[in-house]
Amino acid sequence: MVEFSSDRDKITEWLLEQTEETCACIAVRCALRILPIIGSKWGIGNRNSEGKVFLLLFQALSITFVFSRYASYENEIFLISQKISGKIARIARSSRRAFNAERELILNSIDAIDVVSAAVATVLPGPHPNVAKLSAQAANDSIDVTFSAKHGDNLRLSSVGSLELDMSSICDGNVSSYLAAQPLWRISHGATPDPLWSQWLQMKSRLLALHPDWHVWTDWYEDRYHGRPANEALEIARATLPEELWAQGPRAVNARIAELIAEHAPKEPPNEPGLHAEVRNGKLELRGSAPAANETADPLQQSLHEIVRRKARDMHAALKPAANQYPELFKVATTYLKTVEVPLAELDVTAAWSEGNELDGLLHAYSGQDANRTMSEPLEPALSGRLDALLKDHSALILGFALGRLLTERADRMRMEGLLPDELRRPLLDVLSAFRDLREVIEPATRERIEAAEAAIIETNWRTGRVAYSGYALVRTLLIGAGRFLLKMSVVTIGLFGGLPAIGGLAGDPQLLATYQFALLFRDHAAAILQFAAGFPELRRWCEHVLAHLRLDDEINNGEDEPN
Question: Looking at the DSSP assignment, which residues form a beta bridge with residue 115?
Fold first, then answer.
């Protein structure tokens, strides 16, 4: 690891050997670290002028971040940085004259503004040595600011350690765009984790007291603080807003940024055919699709439905004595019977299709064709023959529905195109079991569907039949339904409820209880969710959006008092 303690010359010497993007990246990360020192203690007068200064600082930091993260946009950034770099330096100079030397906290904040000024100046077009020296000024001055900020040696140690780790990251071969996406405080040498967080919370409260629309910047800063993924298009749009708009002040700029955030938010991905899930009265409920009127009026479909109902009853009755021997098969057979034991016009075609696939998969598993996947004995010939006969009539019934044919074609195509690989099975089961465990917020029939699917996936061969697609479609639908609900509720759930001990107080409000439970599911199973969605970019982007919205990714705290 690069070690320099507080040797200003060594920092400058190292930066002289780096690219302009790296110099800008080091400078803006140093400036972002000490930003809370500016905002937590220092005021410059009336609310209007204070807001304009904060806006200018955020503008400077955002364009420098964009340059270091997305260097291909340097031309647009150069033009903007030229217009604002001088303004920041003038603010620091004029403010310094206004305060006497005894007001150390105020002057310390002004020194921090100088760091921001140096950081944005690294983006100005000019000779490479100037960029390196400006970056060195920002880095060294940021350490000096933390040293004199009355926070003791721990803060300075954290600042030095984070800078050393940033430099080491570059020396290890990482580019500035990678470093720009990392958490700000990268602690080493036993330094205190998350320094200046309490000061940031003071600054955040101050900004939101000025006007609630400052959340577009407080959220932005916390994203940078934690190293959360950034939306490139959104960040470029934010940093390159026209100067005429910036000149109109915080209300106009913040309103436009809020519009940009909405415009760039990932769109909800579509459900697989015939499936939908939504939260009703605090319970997540699967909604399938009934047959079309002309299909229910078809005499052949009516006849097949009656045959399937009768055979499903007989099959269930025959399996009941062997329920302990074949628990998974009995579970799926029970769910299937409930699904088909309704009038044809009310039949959930998607559920019947999926459960038929699960029965077929279990038939193969228990018949000895896939004996390595189950510890149960092969099915007795009479039971095997009864189930096989049921499935033949089931297939005839399902393929008589347009949706049944569509689902069959889609499942086969996804399997042939390699979209349901073996690696999908583990995270799928992790997420499915997580939903199954939420007894209080999952509608009973939906929970039975989840349990049946889980049983079939565990026992059957992932590569055969259509069980893989059925499981994938179910998990995708559940995630979309729960995620949509969380976005609609629009709360930072863990921070709002204060952790698990608070759950008892939510029992009287089913919507809040559902919000809490689904937020915990996304938090605790974030890795499995993202792994499940990895092969489906639209779904993954949306799941990342849900996690970011809730502030429940791996680097998020269980409340705002102490980040991880």
Answer: none
Is the overall model pTM greater than 0.85, yes or no?
Answer: no
Sequence-ordered alpha helix ranges (H) in 122-191: 128-147, 152-171, 176-180
User: Which residue matches tokens 């499942």?
Assistant: 411
Which one, of 507, 500, 546, 494, lies nearest residue 228 by Cα? Answer: 546
- The residues, ordered by sequence, that sit 6+ positions from 497 with a Cβ below 8 Å of its Cβ are 503, 506, 512, 516
3-state percent helix, strand, coil for the chain, nearest multiple of 5: 70, 0, 25
More confident residue, 455 or 155: 455
Asked if residues 399 and 405 have their Cβ atoms less than 8 Å apart, the reply is: yes
Which of 258, 257, 225 lies closest to 238 in space, CA to CA?
Answer: 257
d(CA 195, CA 35): 12
Q: How far apart are CA 84 and CA 91, in angstroms?
A: 11
| CA pseudo-torsion sign 17, 22, 28, 32 | negative
Asked if 479 and 543 touch (Cβ cutoff 8 Å), the reply is yes
Q: Angle formed by the axes of helices 20-41 and 47-69, to 10°?
A: 160
What burial class does residue 375 get, using C-beta atoms within 10 Å of its C-beta: 0-12 exposed, 13-18 middle, 19+ buried?
exposed
| Tokens encoding 521 | 């599911």
Report which of 256, 237, 234, 270 is spatially closest to residue 548, judged by C-alpha positions: 234
Domain ranges of the chain: 8-264, 293-550
DSSP secondary structure of 105-116:
HHHHHHHHHHHH
Higher pLDDT, 68 or 505: 68
Q: What is the mean pLDDT of the chain?
A: 81
The model's pLDDT over 214-223, given as tens digits with 9 standing for 90+, comes to 999 999 998 8
Are 529 and 479 in contact by the 8 Å Cβ rule? The answer is yes
The tally of CA atoms less than 13 A away on the side-chain side of residue 247 is: 5
Question: H or E segment at 126?
Answer: none
- Which is it for the CA torsion 423, 429, 432, 438, positive or negative? negative
Residues 450/284, Cβ–Cβ less than 8 Å = no
